[in-house]
Fold each of these.
Amino acid sequence: MADYATSYELFQALKTAWSLESSSSWSPENPAKGQCSVTSLVMQDLFGGSILKTKTSGGTHFYNVIDGVKWDMTVSQLDRPIPFEDSPATREEAMADTSEPQYRALKGRLAQQLNSRST
């Protein structure tokens, strides 16, 4: 998937990068809350692939497919299992669920986290 040692390290970097700047739903108790759209955009920036979506009781949930493998880095925000519809989504749809400042905040904070882990 990437130059990063493990997907676990990437997940840990994301958990640290998620903040109120990247989602107004963020909380220390549930750092992934509201981060799915912005995270799917940043993941696509880093690794390519495509963005998928599925309906949940809370709205549309976004995640990625990279090299044929489904990656949902924000599934921990959900309080129950969901049936994944795997409907194709566009960057525009994911961006409509977030904002440019939230996107830039997560992208910048994640880059800082990954750079600090590689040094």
Amino acid sequence: MIVRIMGEGQFEVPDSLVDRLNELDNAVLAALDSSDETDFRVSLAALLAAVRAGGTAVDHDTLVPSDATLPYDEATVDEVRALLREDGLIPG
């Protein structure tokens, strides 16, 4: 899976990490639903950190389609809501 973090670049994420990313994605969604800004920030940071730690950066000169687009670290709740798909930020 290719995941883009806005303003940062793309990461190739192994299939073995997708379930964990979906768990973290669900935590972001729950924080959005409850309008809890603190939980939202913590959950978003955890999701982004998991992509950075478990994924491999795609060379900036390589153009490949992204399977998921994640917001940047300081994205607002409204910006994140605009990125949401039917199944959240991470497909699956």
Amino acid sequence: MTLLEVMVAMAIFAIAGLTLMKTVTEQVSALAVLEEKTFAGWVADNQLVTIRLTDKWPNLNWSEGTEEMAGHTYYWRWHGVETADPQFRAVDVEVRDEEKAEDPRATLRSYIAKN
């Protein structure tokens, strides 16, 4: 092997290594976002369960609060939404990872029947 062949082979391995490192870094970043979305979804589920357990007709105003999960504070809010059937009301829950974030990390809609 000549020195030129060795240098070309090293360049190819260096490029392959950089590509592999970039791919792994992107996967780790995506995993962190997925983890945050999963926890935010659980917070939204918890709020829907709480609303159902209170056995009250959901009001149309926003209710807000915070919940601690996995060492992180999530900011939730929910409100009732009128439906075509007066015996049902939709409930929209939004969860954000920052108090003033524009886009929610998770959103859920469920329906509650009037007792």
